[in-house]
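Hi R.,

Here's the chain you asked about this morning:
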Amino acid sequence: MISVDGLTVEFGGFTLFDSVSFVVNKKDRIALVGKNGAGKSTLLKIFAGEQQPSSGTLSVPKDLTIGYLPQQMKLTNTRSVREEAELAFEHIHEMEAEIDRLNLQLTERTDYESDGYQKIIDDVTSLSERYVMMGGGNYLAELERTLMGLGFLRSDFDRPTSEFSGGWRMRIELAKLLLRQPDILLLDEPTNHLDIESIQWLETFIATRANAVILVSHDRTFIDNTTLRTIEIELGKIYDYKVKYSEYVKLREERREQQLRAYENQQKKLADTEAFIERFRYKATKAVQVQSRIKQLEKIERIEVDDIDTSRLSLKFPPAPRSGSYPVIIEDVAKRYGDHLVFDRVTFTINRGDKVAFVGKNGEGKTTLVKCIMDEIDYTGKLQLGHNVKIGYFAQNQAQLLNENLTVFETIDYVAQGDVRTKIRDILGAFMFGGEASDKKVKVLSGGERSRLAMIRLLLEPVNLLILDEPTNHLDMRSKDVLKQALKEFDGTAIIVSHDREFLDGLVDKVYEFGNKRVIEHLGGIFEFLEKKKLANLRELEISAQTQGISSEQTEQSSHNKLSYAARKEQSRVLKRAERNVAQSEERITELETKIAELEVALATPEGAADPLLYANYSDLKKELSTVMEQWTEQTIELEEIRANYEE
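And the predicted structure, written out as tokens:
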């Protein structure tokens, strides 16, 4: 589908890509991997046509459509969420207008036997087929389904985009991209602005409905669930593995060991050759042999090995000062902004040494509760910090608090204590500040670099309660490994707000789920929590308080939120009826589409094209299909609302 041949990219003497070649096939699912700065985003920009290579060719079929989601993009503020998303269907609106124009010509003309009349029929048939294939009669339902899948509520659809944060507006751009269904989808860190539920929805979309996909992500679980081919960029070359990421990791380790052995052997041979030349350089009897060895050295293609993998660095942080047994105690805490209730009756206790995750859709109150714990905002209820609790807090704006006049090294050296000070260069290297980068001034760092630096600075301070709000957004996989291992060995308490499942796996022992104005505690790791949620949604389990051994006080609180048996039974009946209505509409849509397809075949013949009754029947079926589609859209939305209420 797309052929890359001899691609070279140079920046002022530095070669980013050195004559690389590969082919992207139809339905390929490709993960681009490599350390930061290897050229992953640059390669996506070249595919998107936003950057040109220094040399080489990129062969793209003329009619191929490409959709590109960069990490940062300019966003408009003039439309509502729905209006902005509908821009994805401009081509469908243009097609509708063209079909209407041609149909009007058919009704006005009477030269049924002419070539011109036949051509109009052919054009209408062709456009109608493309219209159906592109989901023309169904695009509004698809638009709403996609927006809701990415975390928007129906009540958000008519709100101006200017009311949303940059992260939510990036979701709108992602929705537009997915709705266009391009032949090849280019995604650069698409999960940075998504919560766990939206990431899972995106995984399903890519697996079931996307065409070819090339993506860059530091979320291991996401790329393992969405890609089947891994292209690694290293030292200007690419290594193409026809396997998913988890298998690539094993193969890469084997290749790296082979590279190191070959590199070491070559270095030994080079040293021996250079020693021979140096020893006999001035002996006339050896002149011919010396010249021969010199020519050999010039011809040898030097083996290169990427920088040492610092992800294995064992990073020990200062011991946490001992705190009380219960660093955080929360009882009946509620928070409102005016008439908007964020959460209510939140009650839980975090024990010393706990590593817990705050998860849930964006906007459900995770960061708000963190701010309550930090005493940055007011609330109602009781929230008490334990004895001698010292908090280390990493927020999204943490990077803005760094001293811009210090260098990267000075920023870390200022807070490092004990043995850690001897390893500052190694630590900085693990977080992509190796070599000359450690001497940069903070003022010249990018936003992502500042975030990484703020993270290192925080983790070197002697605290006993770490609160990290989306700590992995700007870290590559190696840096995340270093951070995760450090947190696992941290002997204090940690609260982690994150959507990165792989990062949380094996790190947290409790999950607090935010949703429906409540916070629910789940014991166990992140994948155990996700599995429980999956079962609850599929089987719609209603677990009684008795079977769970819940105290009478908890039972009373639980029953406050549950429907009676009779009400539950009635709701179940309403749900089944709604599901039946949707199924019947879908059956009718299938029947109509089959009949329309048969008529289109007939209309393509000379006899059919001259039959006015046949064309009238075709028009009637198209109108009925449009009506049933609208009906199906309303029924689907109604069903989703019923299911949402039922699951509560």
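Residues 535-563 have pLDDT under 50 and may be disordered.

Let me know if you need anything else.
M.
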